[in-house]
Amino acid sequence: MFDPGLLIQSLPLLLAGLWNTVWLSAGGLLAGFVIGVGVCSLKLSERTVLRRLGGAYVSVFRGIPLLIQLLFIYYLLPRLGLDVPAWVAAMAGLALCCGAYLSEILRGGFLTLPPGQVEAARLLGLGGRDILVRIKLPQALRATLPALLNEVILLIKASSLISAVGLAELTRTAQNLAASTFLQLQFYLAAAVLYCVVNISLALLAGRLERRFEAGRA
Amino acid sequence: MSVLPLTKNGHEVMLEARGMSKRFGEHTVLRDISLSIQRSEVVCLIGPSGSGKSTLLRSLAFLEAYDDGEVFVEGELLGYDRAQGGRRVISRPARLREVRRNMGMVFQQFNLWPHMSVAENVMEALIRGRRLSRAKARKLALETLEKVGLVDKADAWPNRLSGGQQQRVAIARSLAMSPAIMLFDEPTSALDPELVGEVLQVMKHLAEEGMTMVVVTHEMGFAAQVADRVVFLDGGQIVEQGAPAKLFREPSSPRLAQFLKNYLERNSLFDDRPAANGTCL
Question: Which of A118, A119, A123 is the best residue to mutate to test the B interface, defined by the most B CB atoms within 10 Å of its own CB?
Answer without folding.
Answer: A123
